[in-house]
Amino acid sequence: MVKEYINYISHIKGMSANTSKAYYKDLMAFVRWAGERNLRWSTISRDDIDNYVTYLSSNGKSPSTTNRMLSSISGIYNYMRRIGKDVENPCRYESRRKLAKTTPNTISNEELKKAYLHSHGVAKVMLGLLCCTGIRLQELLDIRWEDINFEMNTISINGKGAKGRIAYATSESLETLKTYKSNNEVSGKIFTLSQREVREIIYKALKPYCNAPQLSPHAIRHSYATNIAINGGNVVTLAVLLGHNNISTTQRYIDNANVAAQQLSLNNQILN
Predict the structure, then answer these.
(1) Alpha helices in the chain (DSSP H)
(2) Residue 117: its pLDDT value, please?
(3) Three-state DSSP class for 14?
(4) Overall pTM surpassing 0.70 (yes/no)
(5) Which of 174, 132, 145 is nearest to 156 (CA)?
(6) H or E stretch including 148?
């Protein structure tokens, strides 16, 4: 059943390979736990789910990891009901663990600009695209030459869940890309690297100039989103630019921007 469900979310729902892999891992962990207790899909109760949450917590799983695992369990039950299985979904909202509010990890514009100006080759191309579009790492790797409109400065992005959107690049970042293009293949994907290789390239480019605790493509995405929010971007527009399905996911950038504005106002009062 697990493999059937993973095939469904991968090929029908269009979830990314990374998400599908995480769901598979989560579900197999649950299958092992349930098997040790002689539980079946059709007999698992809400109490069993609560016991599983307790088990995960006692084994050091964070609230966010626990909630993700419960989402995968809920998902496979919804799938079973969809295909006509006579089962009830035992996952309930009350089982979810409360998450502490976190501030998105960001890198300052000044530091990103320094890193960009001092980078070369593929690192410069990647930094330019990530900084001006806020796209995800896998979205960057999925870009094909034919996705880019150099006249309109736009890129067609193949987002999460096979949902496309348009990203707006700067003319400078695309000029850098043109130079890169002249020395490389002009069809197919722009980058033929793994996620791990890109993270390494970005980390090395950022490290000498940035002091943020996390130096990664996703930290650049956080920086892009927070910067737009600080400059007045509303939650709906930002959700579209980021490719978020759920606006609540985007709201934290608006909240972060409001906190930053309040802090700036306080600092000005102190200094003046």
Answers:
(1) 2-11, 17-36, 46-58, 63-82, 109-118, 121-133, 137-142, 171-182, 195-206, 217-230, 235-242, 247-271
(2) 93
(3) coil
(4) no
(5) 145
(6) strand 148-149
